[in-house]
């Protein structure tokens, strides 16, 4: 009898903690989603995904022609006429996705690039979020996504400017989540690895060899897979959104004091943290050896030409 009561108490405790931690899912059907950078790559894949699931979407970008092309593609996926109404109402889900990357060795990057990365990747998210958060708070309803990167969890060779701007989103997201949680608003930070988009193709043209070799570790994903994972995590109110095995390892080893949105995930982090730290040593040694090897290759190439 004693043990029965103890076990019941433990179960009740876990059910209560789990209910406290896990947000109620927000449904896409009938929601209004605003996506910055929705005319290309991950943003466009997100727009197509949410529209296919009954949401209305607004996409924001600079180039009008690319926007019109994306609009035509999205309209083909509309499920009902209500989705195409002009007055879409307030924003339920904001996706801060617009962003760009610059790759290069620290001292070779132009000073202005550091400012540019912060303006586009970080300040852009601040401004957009400020525009919608008040109305979300009034309605006690909302999701805010910041598309960071795996390079926003680990600083990588060639990404001194880019990584810093993606790390900034983490600080913003954690602080904001604490402010908006009482209003039933959930923030999601997404950490994709390399993803096969027009932006990625452009980045390849200027990529430093070390950066390519290190990034290849986590593979190349399709924008559709990334879009689906991020949106679903956000609807479920998950704070850290990762994809793939390396994404899983990285998100858990860098979880820090981030908000906990799943009891199971929390228990798993408590149990695996030290093992993952051990695993990280293999990656660190591998990345150091890539850097060392590239340096030697460069030096011997220089010797040959001189
Ligand atoms: N692809 C990858 O490997 C990865 C990408 N990411 C991140 O995902 C996000 C999307 O990347 P991806 O899909 O590859 O990018 P793309 O370059 O394919 O698309 C970027 C989108 O953002 C818009 N955009 C760019 N700059 C601005 C700006 N200053 N103001 C408004 N809109 C802008 C572009 O339209 P327009 O130019 O017309 O404004 C376009 O719609 C970025 O934040 C990126 O850092 C993260 C990890 C990996
Ligand atoms: C236990 C420890 C596990 C460690 C795993 C480490 C894996 C590191 C891979 C980093 C890949 C970074 C890709 C950045 C993509 C990006 O943002 C740009 N392509 C944007 O255009």
Q: What's the short version?
A:
The protein has 306 residues and is an alpha/beta fold. The protein has helices at residues 2-21, 41-52, 64-75, 111-139, 160-180, 198-206, 209-215, 223-235, 244-253, 263-305, and strands spanning 32-36, 56-60, 93-96, 142-147, 185-190, 240-241.
Characterise the protein shown here.
The chain is an alpha/beta fold and 306 residues long. The protein has one domain (24-280): Rossmann fold (3-Layer(aba) Sandwich). Helix content is 58%, strand content 9%. The chain has ten helices and six strands. The protein has helices spanning 2-21, 41-52, 64-75, 111-139, 160-180, 198-206, 209-215, 223-235, 244-253, 263-305; strands spanning 32-36, 56-60, 93-96, 142-147, 185-190, 240-241. It has a six-stranded parallel sheet, with helices on both faces. α5 links the parallel β4 and β5 (185-190). α2 (41-52) packs across α8, α4 runs parallel beside α5 (160-180) and α7 packs antiparallel against α10 (263-305). The protein starts with a helix and ends with a helix. Residues 36-37, 39-43, 61-63, 66, 97-101, 120, 147, 149, 192, 194-195, 197-200 line the site of NADPH dihydro-nicotinamide-adenine-dinucleotide phosphate (NDP). Residues 31-194 form the Ketoreductase domain. Belongs to the short-chain dehydrogenases/reductases (SDR) family. Residues 60-87 form a coiled coil. Pathway: Lipid metabolism; sphingolipid metabolism; Sphingolipid metabolism. This is 3-dehydrosphinganine reductase.
Annotation, overall tally of beta strands: 6
Principal-axes shape call: globular
| CATH fold-level topology | Rossmann fold
Give me the number of helical elements.
Answer: 10
Summarize the amount of helix as a percent range: 55-70%
End-to-end distance, in Å? 85 Å
- Class, according to the CATH hierarchy? Alpha Beta
CATH architecture: 3-Layer(aba) Sandwich
Pathway: Lipid metabolism; sphingolipid metabolism; Sphingolipid metabolism
Protein name: 3-dehydrosphinganine reductase
Family: Belongs to the short-chain dehydrogenases/reductases (SDR) family.
InterPro entries: KDSR-like, KR_dom, NAD(P)-bd_dom_sf, Sc_DH/Rdtase_CS, SDR_fam
